[in-house]
Amino acid sequence: MVRVRFAPSPTGHLHIGGARTALFNYLFARKNAGKLVLRIEDTDLKRSSPELEEVIIRDLKWLGIDWDEGPIKGGEFGPYRSTDRKHIYKKYVDKLLEEGKAYYCYCTPEELEEERQRLLKEDHMPMYMGRCRNLTPEQIEAYEKEGRKPTIRFRVPENQTVIVDDLVRGRVEFESSGIGDFVIVKSDGLPVYNFAVVIDDYLMKITHIIRGEEHLSNTPRQVLIYEALGLEIPKFAHVSLILGKDRSKMSKRHGSTWVEQYRDEGYLPEAIVNFLALLGWSPEDEEEIFSMEELCERFSLERVAKNPAVFDIDKLNWMNGYYIRKSPIDYITKLAAPYLIKAGYINEQDLEERFDYVKGIVDSVREGVNVLSEIPEKAKLFFEEQIVLEGDEAKEILQMDHIPKLLDVFKEKIEQAEDIDEDFTKKVFKEIQKETGIKGKNLFMPIRILISGKTHGPELAKLMMFLDKEKILKRLDYAKNNFINLDSKRD
Ligand code: GLU
Questions:
Q1: Nearest CA, atom 5, ligand 1
Q2: Is 273 found in the same domain as 149?
């Protein structure tokens, strides 16, 4: 059975690249009727925090990425948090020590730094040169007496080519001579990532390790540990880096990097998931819009590209706009509400008592927005007290001869209306046309400008319905007093 894992370190928020790794693991698990494990790798005690763990879990859930086993959920192969697994590794370390595949290293940080500097000066790649590789019992005793706390290093076999058969990158070879004996247990007794990850993946019966390309250089070390312990090596799939449009590594310069930021800016999880899926993976046809369900059916590692994925924010914006337009309006209204509340246009009570009214407004403006946070700006014309005439065209139109008359007739109709509903909006223009002969553009455009100040915007009927009687009358009065040159007409 396929078993994959997403193994974030809770040292930062969920990065867009991490989210893609999680998504690919999720899709692969679902596609293959396998299991996804969430493992929290909090080995870096100084930088890890339970709060960040919570943030990561919250953001994964927001994206709709669910796992089968994990820290809170539990599962057969737990615990699922590195710090809760400390007791597990000793057995494996002892085995390596006994077999001479690992050894104690007493070098101090100062000594190691000195070695590093020397190698750099001599134009060598800095790596551990094996000073403690073959210590005699006397040397060990002497170091112990000095009170030095040893680390444990893995004895890297000499002159071996380590082969990684990567499902994305193909065959990748590493020479062991470039690796240098590396630390597997720190002087405080805690295992380092490269060691713990092997034991954890082995004990959790992980079959495929799908992760970011940045871990490719760790892989030969991990493969050597699997081999030294005689454990079956899982399959690897290293997914390419995400680059900005300028082809440098995706960073803050290219836009937001955390999932949380995208959520706050008003991106929909459906859009983020769809977009992330296409950052590296591609379907067989040209299609671009996929629900999570469709992705689960279609995803395959064979179609994950080796070349880097380019993060195109314009595409994400387009996609998000698409989901805002196509998703059920109740759902979009709920997501848009916090932005309208923040802008002071509605409150929690409106949401409960006048949901249809809020929904109508969101529906009439969602056409032109890419992110939910743009909705207040678009919806402004429904809420603002004083309207502003926008552009010369609007001003010119209001100077046309028939406007004062049109305004008076329209105002009268509104005053007489019981309710500005669909029925009313259908009838009122026909009536005005019949009574005054004003029609077409001469009728609709001035009314739109009189009540909104703008020459464009949502459908006029919707605009009227959601402004409602009181606001329309107020705006007509305001327009009469401020926008229409009544004096010149009186002469
Ligand atoms: N904890 C590692 C990270 O957050 C992941 C390691 C792995 O997937 O093997 O980058």
A1: 7
A2: no
Give the atom of ligand 1 at the shortest distance from the alpha carbon of 11: 4
Look at residue 165 and give its three-state secondary structure: strand
* Residue at token pair 């551990």: 128
| Cβ-contact 135, 161 below 8 angstroms | no
Q: Are 457 and 404 in the same domain? A: yes
Q: How far is the CA of 9 from the centre of ligand 1 (A)?
A: 6
Structural domain contains residue 179: yes
Catalytic residue check, 342: no
The CATH number of the domain holding residue 72 is 3.40.50.620
Same domain, 95 and 212: yes
Q: 């995706």: which residue's tokens?
A: 250
Q: Domain check: are 395 and 441 in the same one?
A: yes
Boundaries of domain holding 467: 391-482
Tell me which of 61, 149, 252, 427 is the catalytic residue.
Answer: 252
User: 334-369 pLDDT, tens per residue?
Assistant: 999 999 999 999 999 999 999 999 999 999 999 989
Q: What is d(CA 428, CA 447) in angstroms, rounded to the nearest whole number?
A: 12
Beta strands in 256-380 (DSSP E): 309-310
- Percent helix, strand, coil in the chain, to 5, is 55, 10, 35
Is the previous residue joined to 150 through a cis bond, with omega within 30 degrees of 0? Answer: no
How many A from CA of 195 to the centre of ligand 1? 12
- Which residue(s) pair with 171 in the sheet? 165
Q: Is 159 left (phi over 0), alpha (psi -120 to 50) or beta?
A: left
Pick from 42, 26, 460: nearest CA to 269: 26
Q: Give the number of domains in the chain.
A: 4
What separation in Å is there between the alpha carbon of 247 and the centre of ligand 1?
23
Q: How many CA atoms are closer than 13 Å to the CA of 81, on its beta-carbon side? A: 16
User: Is 366 within the bounds of a domain?
Assistant: yes
- Tell if the pTM clears 0.85, that is, is over it: yes
What are the tens digits of pLDDT across the range 433-485?
Answer: 999 999 999 999 999 999 999 999 889 999 999 998 999 999 999 999 998 86
What is the dihedral sign for C-alpha 253, 254, 256, 257?
A: negative
Q: Please list every protein residue whose CB sits less than 6 Å from any atom of ligand 1.
A: 7-9, 41, 197, 211, 215
CA–CA gap between residue 105 and residue 143 (Å, rounded)? 10
* DSSP per position, 346-379: --HHHHHH-HHHHHHHHHHHGGG-SSGGGHHHHH
Taking the C-alpha atoms of residue 376 and residue 380, their distance in angstroms, rounded to an integer, is 6
- Beta strand 309-310 with 242-243 is parallel
Do 149 and 231 share a domain, yes or no? Answer: yes
Task: Based on the fold, state whether residues 228 and 97 are members of the same structural domain.
Answer: yes
Query: Do both 99 and 174 map to the same domain?
Result: yes
Q: Ligand 1: distance of its center to the CA of 65 in Å? A: 17
Helix 355-365 to helix 329-342 angle, to the nearest 10 degrees? 90
**Helix (H/G/I), strand (E/B), else coil: 405:** helix
